[in-house]
């Protein structure tokens, strides 16, 4: 699932080297369905490969974390909703 990132301040031009990770949780009770995993990045897009083979039919939320070194802030993007049917 691709997630496009926009830096309003213009400080970030690529996610390469940022340490971008993602996790998936169930929408209903917010329990973790897929633990934190590394995302692949190109430019300002994070590609989150989610293996849905073991996920039961349900609604889920994708959360993307940007682990920017040297920053006091760790942005958490999302939730981005999706459904496994």
Structure description:
- There is one protein chain.
- It contains no helices and seven strands.
- By secondary structure, it is mainly β.
- It has a four-stranded antiparallel sheet, with no helix packed on it. It has a three-stranded antiparallel sheet with strand order 1-5-4, with no helix packed on it.
**What is the terminal-to-terminal distance?**
16 Å
Major sheet: arrangement of strands: 3-2-6-7
- Overall average residue pLDDT: 93
DSSP, total strands: 7
- DSSP helix count? 0
The stretches of 5 or more residues where confidence is low (pLDDT under 50) are none
Largest sheet: 4 strands, antiparallel
Shape: elongated
Q: What layout of secondary structure does this protein have?
A:
Blueprint: E1 2-4, E2 20-26, E3 32-38, E4 40-42, E5 45-47, E6 58-66, E7 76-84
Antiparallel strand pairs: 1-5, 2-3, 2-6, 4-5, 6-7
In short:
Helix content is 0%, strand content 48%. The chain is mostly beta strands and 85 residues long. Strands 3-2-6-7 form a four-stranded antiparallel sheet, with no helix packed on it. The chain has a three-stranded antiparallel sheet with strand order 1-5-4, with no helix packed on it.
Q: How would you describe this structure in keywords?
A:
mainly beta, 3-stranded antiparallel sheet, 85 residues
